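cache lookup: miss for this entity combination. No prior model stored, computing from scratch. Input as submitted by user K.M.:
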Amino acid sequence: MSAADLGGRQATAALALPYAIELKGISKAFGSVQANKDINIAIPRGTIHGIIGENGAGKSTLMSILYGFYRADSGQILVNGAPVTIPDSQSAIRAGIGMVFQHFKLVQNFSVLENVILGAEDGPMLNSSLAKARKILGDLSREYELDVDPDALIEDLSVGHQQRVEILKALYRQAEILILDEPTGVLTPDEADHLFRILRGLRDQGKTIVLITHKLREIMETTDNVSVMRRGTMVATVKTAETSPESLAELMVGRKVLLEVEKKPSKVGEIVLSVKNLAVKDEHGVTRLKGVSFDIRAGEILGIAGVAGNGQSELLDALGGIAAASGVVVLNGAKLPLTGPRANGKARRDAGIAHVPEDRQSLGLIMDFAAWENVGFGYHDDPRYQKNAWLMDNEALRADTASKMATYDVRPPIPTLPAKSFSGGNQQKIVVAREMDRNPELLLIGQPTRGVDIGAIEFIHKQIIALRDAGSAVLLVSVELDEIMSLSDRVLVMFDGQIMGERVPAQTDERELGMMMAGMGAK
Amino acid sequence: MDFATFLQISDTALRFATPLLLACLAGLFSERAGIFDIGLEGKMLMAAMSAGAVAAMTGSVLLGLFAAILGSLMFAAVHGLASITFRGNQLIAGVALNFVASGITVLIAESMFGQGGRTPPLTGAARFANIDLPFAETLRAVPVLGPFYAEVVSGHTILVYVALALVPISWWVLYRTRFGLRLRAVGENPASVDTAGVSVVQLRFSAVIIAGVLCGLAGAYMSTGLQAGFGREMTAGRGYIALAALIFAKWRPWQALWATLLFGFLQALALRPDVVESMTRVAIPVPFLDALPYILTVIVLAGFVGKAIPPRAGGEPYVKER
Amino acid sequence: MTKLPTWADVGLVPLISLTLAALVSAGVLLAIGQSPMQALTVMVNGALGSSYAWGYTLYYATSFIFTGLAVTVAFHAGLFNIGGEGQAQLGGLGVALVCLALPWPHWTIALLAAMFGAALFGAAWAAIPAYLQAKRGSHIVITTIMFNYIAAALLIYLLVNVLRPDGQMDPASANFPASAHLPQFQEIPILQGLFQRFGADGLPRLNAQGMPMYQQVPANVTFLIAILACVLVWVMLWHTRLGFAIRAFGKSEKAAVYAGISPLRIIMIAMLISGALAGLMAINNVMGQSERLVQNSASGAGFIGIAVALMGRNHPLGIFLAAVLFGFLFQGGAALGLETDIPIELRTVVQGLVILFTGALDQMVRMLLGAFFAKKGAT
């Protein structure tokens, strides 16, 4: 047999098995919600394949099916050309699939080594497993720039390092296919770049990477091919080099995206909020907000840009009265207490600060409460909702809820329905209605459109602009640069608990802001 | 307190500490796997009755021990079913089982023996015999340690030594074996175990079953070692004291030994108010000594003596995240 | 899982849980060679068959209403108060101290003062675990269990060494003065007729003064106070700002903080109310019935409160119904102990089973029902 023959045979074999994963006709429903509808996709081996789509498009469900967390209602999965069934994670691991979840699945008080071998031990005794893992981990670290101290406890590691442990876990299990679900949501740009270097290294060694994200930039920079999901269906799979962010965005939302929000020039008034040297420590005593200072005037929207976890949440918590802080905060000339019993959400509301929190499901709403109770939530001592000194006027609150639901287009407009029965967008509208309808002096609003459908996004954006035009000051925190750019009158960029600088949207671009968010650029 | 009295009280303390230690280790396995177990008391009680009844009927303490483990396991199975399979409230399940045990033990004992809910007194082979350890008498001459060995360490039933041996064994299982690693992981973050392809349900059930077996030993010791027969409510809150010791020990095996020895010692002292009075020169009320383990536990829980951090996923049923 | 209609979730789930508990209990009875039917007959007769029986059933129910409400108020704040037993015993201490303190001119004044004492002592006993939970994060389930034992020890000490009158053997306080006696049902004019005693000839029996004689029952005016407590707790939870804050905090502590609701304040207030309610139970048993403080005065009613609250779905109306049911169980169980070979402990078994099915296996019951409704929906 000649060498040429052999080469030819190998090429044929490679052609016969070009795909690491093929999904054929995958469907999955949760109750009446069709999360995945007839999904077909083929991912070539040795590539980085992006899957992009809005929140709730069905990306995570699809990957959970691939990792054995859910079983598809119908359809077929092929790994390396062979049909497989993946009833549980064990089968996925055996098929060579590794998964890095958005929320890491690590044991906080275990060492890196213990986390890596968990579930993949060699025998009933630990010592030999640990010794072997130590050696393999050393090799992997060198090969892929994945250095972590094997004896460090997870709770002592940074988020970026914890993610590396997750990748090491998958590689230790000899995963050939690595799925990463929104891996950069919690990373600094630097850490994200490092991650992508690692991923490219893995691809060059022949591994297949599936990258799930809703960030177009990552897709464009990192992937070889990209599939777009929309409302549970796979709408397109294209070569990344042959597409553009604009056309991907259009595919994602199903129509031209209106990133521009119509707004008149702002008519700024007096300083409403003045913040000086505001600092917040977390429960472990680590300073998360490292002394920020800024002013907001009446009738303007101040946007705070930054990667999640750079102190924006702490800023909102401190101003909203949830977290104790140090520094000076002056609202309309009056100093606000930042610690002690008078630094709480109620006192802030009384002072005229409304707060739409970043996490509506765990902070902004009580999911088991009815809509009308949620409209009263935080304002339940409002005199309008009282019958007399002792009793609340639930009827008045229900009536007020009905009128707010009409104004803010909450669907279905039924005040007695529990919050958990509404969609994400309508839940957010309930919170927005409650907080904005009082024309507050200052509105704190975090991630106003996270997990909210397009229609509701437009509506909420218009409400924010309307509030500003009515003369309120607005502090907007968002990790979506588009949102910051289109809504804000001024933008502050936060990095590592500090303000990196201030820009006016018209005089900057996403590139410059991105650099500042990564901790670079002028102070 | 003279040395002879000290030895006497220490001897009693070890006897009292044994059921506490066994139940405490039972709680250790269960809670380390993320299942809070308030039902130690009920399982012990059920085991004590089963052992007493079967030993009385057959005259064989070994059959009694077997029955004790079986009885305790039945309750453990229900606890597992409620808190693992049906993701119910673990605390409420434990409380409920304690009530069931409190009533049903009397019902069964009464219907079997008609002696007011007691089992007949056990004698001979129906009880665990005391074992004299080798050289107990020869070494007695050695000052201090000799009498301690002969009086305190030697002369207990086999279950006492089993309980003591279970301390290093538990440590070894938890920290040196694959099973222990997974067990601890499932109590800290069950998702880590689940995504690693290991069954959370199986692991938690094994932990609950181990707890059942250990409570079986504890209960058997109550009715066939410490006492000669079962009496209603004979565990008298020992399950709760074991729980207290577990918190005291911060969920660790060796510390569990020291905590239960301390609580056993307090219980032994409560029997000898004269000794306490002669030592402190003030009359300490017996009820105060009885309550001391509970008071100490509250102090520990309040974090005045180091912070007791329970396993992170404890008490929470595991539901897969999307 | 199929979502249940509200009426099924509220009404059927407890009913089926109860049925399951009854079936298992019947199985236990069969296993020990007794007849469940006979047991049920004896229980029904003993607890409901006469005004005398009702007098006992409602007496027990009164205690259970208080302890059930106590568990419920804490539950709505997300706190599992297992300490009702100890708080009720301390409440008894409060009642005893008040009743023995003064020669009360009239029972109404004594009652008001004793209520204050009971509530104060019960609340105080709940305050420490509450504070430790709020400030130090000590798990309230464990601390309240510990406080039950500490309460028992404390009361033994006080009854033996402090409150016991000279020359008395049993560890109990002195008898309360007659002026602190609460009217029992047979002494309340409009109810009196129900408890009249008749001779074998069918004629009313008369005493030496020629007045009609009445059956003496322990149920007393406290029953009315218990009903009032149900109403007040309902109003508090669903129609006041405090209740709103308690329920919000119980559903989500994080969200409550966001809304400016102070965890310390809510934990303390909810537990103080809970402890006060548990303590108030002592009006019924200590002041209304035994008329002196005895050892283990709460006799398990604090624990039954857990079953009552779970069975009553943490709603005052449900608690009232569940308390009467448990009153039936308690009195019926006592009748079993007297009239059959079935030990009185059967009621502890039923109590445990009810807690198990309503509190821990509720998911199973819901799944069973859900399957049923799904099938019904399909056909």
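stored under new cache key. The longest strand of chain B covers residues 130-131.
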